[in-house]
Design brief:
homodimer, 15 helices
């Protein structure tokens, strides 16, 4: 496989890495945050705004797009990039996570998973090969192997068998892609394929899974099953167990994570890529991220507040609008309110990654991380009271 | 009063006028469409987008802002312009229309109207003087007199008495503004005051009301009570009855109207300014305006449609997105869908006014109007089938 990932700098005090990932639709500076465009749109945000926010890649959810509008539609439009008017890189998940969290009447076999979708209940079947075919048809720049994402807590025996099946599925994905890529993508750009490490909260399973997945050889590696309700210590330990097995010259993606401090902790543990719905989901509930923790802008304390969400922030919301006005919009259920908080929150996450990259380059990432985590936790605890 | 309105051109075949209205926050080219910012935000749209759409003025609803966030809040922020970060002209209504359409337990007396608001049921009282005080506190560039907007159909005797009371209220507004403006506006910019003609669907009442309101002498004149469910012929007749009494050198505002063909018909009848929730409200339901009539983008016929909403349109939605994608967004309840249609619809209305201004200047407005109305109606009828 071609060399897609370049390591530009490494932190001396942690495993943090500064890198650059090359895709068919552009470069991605890592550590990178990927806004989530579940149904072909990052909720509340236009592609132009994503560009202005300096987002370099967005995530699409294969399951959602498979269910609605359906693959025939996206194929007709020439792939997801054309459909959603986003010409930057796209990463798609395999659909596995949503099948296991949203769909009904799942039946998992070695062959694949049968389910009824949550929209109209139609039956469907996805195998590792079908997951690959779908993602190549979507035109993803980074595709993911089909995995089973077990729930938390999970019995050891089930987790072990599931992780082994996930490995066999990963192998089938890699094989299928090698044999069918040219036909499947039908003129769309070249894609990468990332393997996913599973193993629930069991250290030996995480290690075994990481070793087995790496043995297959992928363009990058993801840690899956780490945003399923487990305590933060278990999440971090799962990453720490798998990380030493992952080759240093490939990108690492911690799936579905996390809070701002968690992202910095994961970067310190050698992770490069992140996706998370928190910035967009919390925005719709009136919650904004700041370096001092989250603010619930619905609170009465903000009624007369002329300050922007965050004083030194350069996002569109903070350049033009007060907390008091945004609070009014949220209370009055005006769309502009959630739009402004969404822009701020995405800016916050993307800017945090930018800061992390700079600090790694400067060799000061570890101090930065510690100071950020302390400041964030302290004031957040105060704000919650 | 100072001269705010300049007539730049007149149509030879109709009463259409091309003019320019000067306010404390900028010029307004007439005929003008004013996007409706009910609660201090044009639904779904940011002030920056309004500028890009070339909107020159927005409307604020006094009743809504009075109820939420409340006047103390807007006063604290230094007026509505500052609060909502819109530095262009703002017209506010007096609150009358919403009191009569939204509030509960109304009690109308000569003194004013007592009501319970529709949000928390709190009791409030608004008189002509209070309506002026509120609008000056909001910092409106164009304020409106308090009027009673009767429902349709309306008994002649009630309509006659109501129109007479509206005239007395208008006189009280003008008197109060003259005596209290400097104190009330507290350093905010100078405002204009428009009187409102009422009289329901009765020709003699419309004429009497117009004459009486003009006798008071306002900066501009509005036709009220014309968007309350009456047939289009009655709407047009109400305007036609009042218009000859309105001085030619003052702007005329047809309140709460209308569809695109109606706007052109009203321009032909000497109207200069319009506000209407149709472009934003219909957008939220998936309906887009085109020169060929409205399109309901929820319809299955658009699933695979790669065309923009309107082929020759230069709006942000039509420059970048297909009908098929927007349909998907609307069906999936993605906010971007209603945002894109809202941008298109506002562009359509604003561009229609721009075309009307150009056609009046060129002396070809009448042909333009006839061709537009014919094209719009024909295809709309087809689309409805």
């Amino acid at each position: 496989m071609q060399k897609n990932f370049e390591r530009l700098a490494s932190d001396r005090h942690s495993k943090a890495r500064r890198g650059s990932l090359t895709t068919a639709h552009g470069e991605i500076d890592t550590p990178a945050f990927m806004p989530v465009g579940t149904q072909g749109s990052v909720k509340g945000v236009s592609p132009r705004e994503l560009r202005e926010l300096t987002a370099q890649i967005v995530l699409g959810n294969t399951y959602h797009l498979f269910v609605r509008p359906g693959l025939d539609v996206i194929k007709h439009f020439g792939g997801l990039h054309n459909f959603m008017s986003w010409d930057g890189p796209i990463l798609t998940d395999s659909g596995g996570y949503q099948i296991f969290s949203l769909a009904k009447l799942r039946k998992i076999t070695e062959e694949g998973v049968e389910f009824q979708n949550h929209i109209d209940g139609a039956r469907a079947f996805i195998s590792p090969e079908i997951a690959m075919e779908i993602q190549l048809l979507l035109g993803s720049d980074i595709t993911m192997t089909l995995d089973e994402c077990v729930s938390y807590p999970c019995e050891y025996d089930y987790a072990a068998q599931s992780a082994e099946m996930t490995t066999r599925w990963a192998k089938r994905c890699a094989d299928w892609k090698r044999q069918n890529e040219e036909t499947a993508k039908r003129g769309l750009a070249d894609s990468m394929l990332f393997g996913i490490v599973q193993g629930a909260t069991f250290e030996d399973l995480r290690k075994e899974s990481a070793q087995a997945i790496v043995d297959i050889d992928f363009d990058g590696y993801a840690i899956g099953g780490v945003s399923v309700g487990e305590p933060q210590e278990e999440m971090m330990r799962a990453v720490e167990c798998a990380e030493p097995f992952l080759p240093g010259d490939k990108p690492r993606y911690a799936m579905g994570l996390g809070t701002p401090p968690q992202l910095l902790e994961l970067i310190a543990r050698g992770m490069d890529m992140f996706d998370c719905v928190l910035p967009t989901r919390l925005a719709r509930n009136g919650t904004a991220f700041t370096a001092a923790g989250t603010l619930n802008l619905k609170n009465a304390e903000f009624i007369l507040d002329k300050n922007p969400i965050e004083g030194n922030c350069t996002c569109e919301a903070c350049r033009g609008f007060s907390r008091g006005y945004i609070r009014h919009l949220i209370k009055a259920e005006e769309i502009l309110g959630l739009r402004l908080i969404t822009l701020h929150n995405l800016h916050f996450y993307l800017n945090l990654m930018k800061q992390a990259r700079t600090e790694i380059e400067k060799g000061t990432f570890d101090q930065f991380r510690k100071a950020f985590v302390t400041e964030y936790k302290t004031r957040d605890a105060v704000a919650v009271e």
